[in-house]
Amino acid sequence: MADNSMLMSETGRSLLADSSVLDSRIIETSKENEFPGSVLDVEEEMPQIETRVVLVQEAGKHEELLKALEEIKVPYIKTDTIEELGDSDSPEFETVYVVTDFQDSIFNSLCKADCRVVGPPLVLHCARKGEPLPFSCRPLYCASMLNLVLCFTGFRKKDELVKLVTLVHHMGGIIRRDFSSKVTHLVANSTHGDKFRIAVSLGTPIMKAEWIYKAWEKRNEILCLNIDDDFRNRFKVPPFQDCMLSFLGFSDEEKANMEEMTEMQGGHYLPVGDERCTHLVVEESTIKDLPFEPLKKLYVVKQEWFWGSIQMDARAGESMYLFEKSESPGLKKSVSQLSLNTPNSNRKRRRLKETLAQLTRETDMSPFPPRKRPSAEHSLSIGSLLDISNTPESSTTNGETPKSCARPSKNSTPLPVKQSARWQVAKELYQTESNYVDILTTIIQLFQVPLEKEGQLGGPILAQEEIKTIFGSIPDILDVHTKIKEDLEDLMINWTENKSIGDIFLTYSKDLVKTYPPFVNFFEMSKETITRCEKQKPRFHAFLKINQAKPECGRQSLAELLIRPVQRLPSVALLLNDLKKHTAEENPDKIILERAIESLKEVMTHINEDKRKTEAQRQFFDVVYEVDGCPANLLSSHRSLVQRLETVALGDDLCDRGEQVTLFLFNDCLEVRLLCEYFS
């Protein structure tokens, strides 16, 4: 029977088609039973074999199963004992046995006789999808793990491994001894070994053995596919499984937060110095050397390893995040003089050491120049910035920066020593605009782009809707201000007193009206989304911790950076007013500046009005969703909520005395809501 069924699956004659759930054993068997001659000859010589489904014992009483077989028009017979059927290996029939219990004596007898055995859930699954029963050389109870390829690591007990492998086969899964990119899930009993590290690097889900046992418990739930993310995530190996962590150099509040996160991610924490500790997490900005000699088995890592592991939902490789001690007292003394933030990556750290060594050889003077102010990195590097407080560090000061921040200035001509007051204000306007563009670029390159990136280790950190809510029209705002910055830079390079700055802002006023309202209107929602996601999603919290610690952010949180667009236009308006004061009456730009200022005021008025309308609409929809039985005709484009008032009834006209009554005053009507009724 087995030979015939295999042959017929190749020729396509059988009603039980091959679904490619094959392994090397099936392929080898098919080669051994290969007939001479072409497939076409075989088709001409061999008659069509009829499929016969045999429902054994309890399977014959399964009403839903009987109905499914009738729907797909597959003939079946019922039997209490397999002996009643005689020889099942008949050339006239391809027999498939449906058995409800994959552990009883009948099942074992069918397996020994090399019969094809399936479970009721598999038949129901195929019937619902309108597909033929899949072919398999092994008993197949359900399709819960159909098309999944599993690999195992860390299991020392052979009996346990055999049991797990058998269950996976019963649910349609495939087992691979060696790990490769084709493996869809790694089942791990240990967080050590090459398979585990490769799975982490490829982003392959790493599961507990409990996943397989729980999936088998749900084997009769037809709609429960174990590839479902919600079900799978319950049984993923947490990042800090088998880890004992200690924390050094952190504040009490930060340490408590990290200890709580450790337990949430499957680990445990211990006091510093405990010999059971597997990882010592160090705050590298405050700890320059360890207070004790660590054991060889202890991983001493930077905090980026901790947050990185949570972000990718798997234990990161320690070798990339090892804490490096100062090599010598001389170097330690030199580094202490450096006023810049210490680079985070090993590559930047090595580059810094090489530079220090070279400078020390070339001169006896201190190798560290005085720290430049943030504005010093721009071509017009004197004066103060309007919004200098809480400003990210400049690009060359802090190592890696977004590409747009690293572009060299067009200005290579030395500036005159003395300039007019008008030039000074124009220069400050350019500096603040350049700084603002850098901030917007940092928001996009450091936060938005990584969150939107496909193929993130551990899966997406946030849903696309949440990302859109947080960042809104920031990319559009950046595009407009990049053009304004470039125009201002050209103007400053070719400066004359008659150059028109007002024209620049008049040119882009329509673009400002288009780009700012979508962001400003939903800024509060953006902050609320950040706060909610940070509390509910540990991976997002870890993502923010990693990126907000980078020099580009200037120690500011994402929410603090996102408030800059709300503040920018009022700052520009103030600078344009100041510029107008220092512009001579006969200067043509005087009138143009006045028009530019009025244009900016109109933009801000439009934004405020649009924001007011948006908030009113939100309040309106809140009323509609809150009130049961709210009439549909209440929704209208011209209607807005003026006031909501909570009252208590004093009369007996509409309701009993003391009953709560809510009044909704709209611009054209009054709505009354009682505790259980609604009146217009």
Automatic annotation (TrEMBL):
Organism in which the protein naturally occurs: Cairina moschata
Region of interest: Disordered: 332-351, 356-418
Record's protein name: Protein ECT2
Domain DH: 421-610
Residue ranges constituting the BRCT domain according to the UniProt record: 147-220, 235-323
Origin: domain of life: Eukaryota
SUPFAM superfamilies: BRCT domain, DBL homology domain (DH-domain)
Any Gene Ontology CC annotation: cell cortex
Pfam families in alphabetical order: BRCT, ECT2_BRCT0, ECT2_PH, PTCB-BRCT, RhoGEF
Polar residues composition bias: residue spans: 334-345, 387-401
GO terms classed as biological process: intracellular signal transduction; mitotic cytokinesis; nervous system development; regulation of cytokinesis, actomyosin contractile ring assembly
Molecular-function GO terms, alphabetical: GTPase activator activity; guanyl-nucleotide exchange factor activity
